């Protein structure tokens, strides 16, 4: 539960994983970050307390006049 402060800055890096070799690719959060930030112009932030839990906040832009997602 929660993410150690020493690694939180690396969690969106491609191929970063805390799992043992062969148990994960380290691509999950890197792909999520790319989709939200680069493909949709949004933001993703993380709040974490090691030993307690982690919260991800995703914000995506919308056009306030049409209430639709802005095209990039």
Q: How are the secondary structure elements laid out?
A:
Elements: H1 28-39, E1 43-49, E2 53-59, E3 62-63, E4 68-69
Antiparallel strand pairs: 1-2, 3-4
Detailed description of the structure:
The chain is built from one helix and four strands, in the order αββββ. By secondary structure, the chain is α+β, with helices and mostly antiparallel strands. The protein has a two-stranded antiparallel sheet.
Q: Could you list some keywords that capture this structure?
A:
72 residues, alpha+beta, two-stranded antiparallel ribbon
How many helix segments?
1
Given as residue ranges, the uncertain stretches (5+ residues, pLDDT < 50) are none
The run of helices and strands is HEEEE
Query: How far apart are the first and last residues' alpha carbons, in Å?
Result: 36 Å
Helicity level: 10-25%
Q: Biggest sheet, in brief?
A: 2 strands, antiparallel
Query: What's the rounded overall pLDDT mean?
Result: 87
- How many strand units? 4
Structural class, by secondary structure, is alpha+beta
Instruction: Identify the overall geometry.
Output: flat
Radius of gyration: 15 Å
Strand order, largest beta sheet: 1-2
- Hey, roughly how much beta strand do the residues contain? 25-35%
């Amino acid at each position: 539960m929660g993410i150690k402060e020493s690694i939180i800055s690396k969690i969106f890096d491609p191929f970063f994983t805390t799992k043992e070799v062969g148990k994960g690719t380290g691509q999950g959060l890197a792909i999520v970050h790319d989709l939200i930030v680069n493909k949709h112009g949004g933001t993703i932030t993380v709040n974490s307390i090691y030993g307690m839990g982690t919260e991800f906040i995703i914000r995506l832009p919308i056009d306030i006049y049409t209430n639709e997602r802005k095209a990039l």
